[in-house]
Structure prediction request, 212 residues.
Amino acid sequence: MTGPDDLVTLDRLAVQEAVRLLDLARDDDWERDTPCAGWTLRGLAAHMSAQHHGFAAAARGEGGDLARWREPVTATDPAAEHRAAASGLIAAFAEPGVLDRGFGLPELRPGPGPGGGWPGRFAVGFHLVDYVVHAWDVAVTLGARVEVPEPVVTAALAVARRVPTDPESRGPGSAFAPPVEKAAYASDLDLMLALLGRDPGHGGAAEPQMQL
Prediction:
């Protein structure tokens, strides 16, 4: 069984897989469309870098500063930009007591903590789901295979099961697309993707696509 204290390790593994996959991209891959609506691989990499910077700032009590969440100006080397952002995130999450801190996450509704913060365990769980999904997005875009250990998928699926599915929480303008309904799924990863609006059956996302 995986306990809450393993979340940081599991998140690191998901982030490292996303780094590995983006490092596979060649110069002519960056303008490819991705399963994220309206985003090329370059745009997705910029979003992923921004999220790393924002979550790292939130881990250190600075998440309320919207400047920390801004996407970088178009990078000449998006993979290197993302790699550096991921290293900063991993270092921030590795600090002692991070799971017990309050995270300011301005892109989400206010959390249950003081000042609308989210408990660190929840915030790291959100980030974990983000990077399992985005690693898959990158893999689909590049025609590669995503490789995440089973405990990472199990933990991400547990978080995905708790995401509200009511119409107010899903669809256009929301963070998540409606779940994709199928009779059966080949794996827990497929189920997790479907719960969050991706369609693992055709290598992309259902409409409207989710942008985490």
Summary: The chain has one domain: 4-205. The domain at 4-205 is CATH 1.20.120.450 (Four Helix Bundle (Hemerythrin (Met), subunit A)). The chain has six helices and four strands.
